[in-house]
Write a structure and sequence with these properties.
heterodimer; A: alpha+beta; Jelly Rolls; 4-stranded antiparallel sheet; 4 helices; 8 strands; B: alpha+beta; SH3 type barrels; 5-stranded antiparallel sheet; 5 strands; globular
Chain lengths: 148, 103
């Protein structure tokens, strides 16, 4: 019998799915862990995204803030990435991210991640494909929200 | 910046679904606290082995003497309770290990 938390963990790490072991060995030394308390602001809209984060546990809500108006865009859960703009050289957060519960993340500094991908284009291609999916999901979520 | 701790593999499980790599996961004990850890980078590590763990991945086998020596230092410096508390609270390793490395 496989403990359920093992399956949850495998799911939580799906961003790294498909990377070869030697590629993972290049990425892991860059990674750190970061935790957020319930209600804590993870990213403010417009802030420079310094880290690409992978949510290991907990929930984060992305919100569009315009003056006093706050519009929810998407709720992120274990296995999902946030801060994709850190992967670009001058990326800024498109939404505010706030922890809905205690949140545990693995973080990769954007500049070091880019350097690692420059040195290993195959790894860069793999991550870029996954992050494009993330960007597409954000666009879809924002479009759906705009319809409401 | 990265932080690592040695832990002892208590259980191994092959999930038989290709959601990560193998994926092979293990229940790894860190001085009394256990966490699920991905074992795919250490194909030669099995139950009873100590492995070095970094952000949820075992990255290499650690000789038992070396692991026990590290834990002895944690206990001598009074840091073991901090580590266990942090692990149990999923507050994770960074703060605790950062403090240890500064000493």
């Amino acid at each position: 019998m496989i403990p359920p938390q093992f399956l949850e963990m495998a799911h939580a790490y799906r961003l790294l799915c498909g990377l070869a072991p030697d590629q993972l060995r290049k990425l892991l030394p860059l990674a750190g862990e970061r935790q957020y308390a319930k209600g804590e602001i993870v990213l403010r809209e417009g802030d420079k995204s310094a880290y690409l984060s992978l949510i290991v546990s907990g929930e984060v809500i992305l919100e569009k803030v315009q003056g006093d108006e706050v519009t929810p865009v998407q709720t992120l859960r274990a296995g999902e990435a946030m801060g994709w703009s850190a992967f670009t050289e001058d990326g800024h957060a498109q939404f505010r991210a706030q922890a809905l519960s205690p949140v545990s993340t693995i973080v990769f500094p954007g500049d070091r991640l880019r350097e690692a991908c420059d040195r290993d284009p195959a790894m860069g291609y793999h991550l870029t494909k996954h992050l494009l999916q993330v960007v597409t999901e954000r666009l879809d979520a924002a479009r759906e929200q705009a319809k409401l | 910046m990265s932080f690592t701790l040695p832990g002892k593999i208590l259980e191994e499980h092959d999930l038989k679904v290709r959601s990560v790599f193998g994926p092979r996961l293990g229940l790894v004990e860190f001085g009394g606290t256990c966490r699920p850890i991905i074992l795919d980078l250490v194909p030669d590590a099995h139950v009873g082995n100590y492995v070095r763990v970094q952000v949820g991945f075992a990255t290499g086998i650690v000789p038992e003497e070396e692991a026990l020596r590290e834990y002895a230092v944690f206990r001598e410096t009074g840091s073991m309770k901090d580590i266990e508390r942090d692990l149990e609270a999923e507050e994770a390793l960074p703060e605790t290990v950062r403090r240890l490395k500064k000493r």
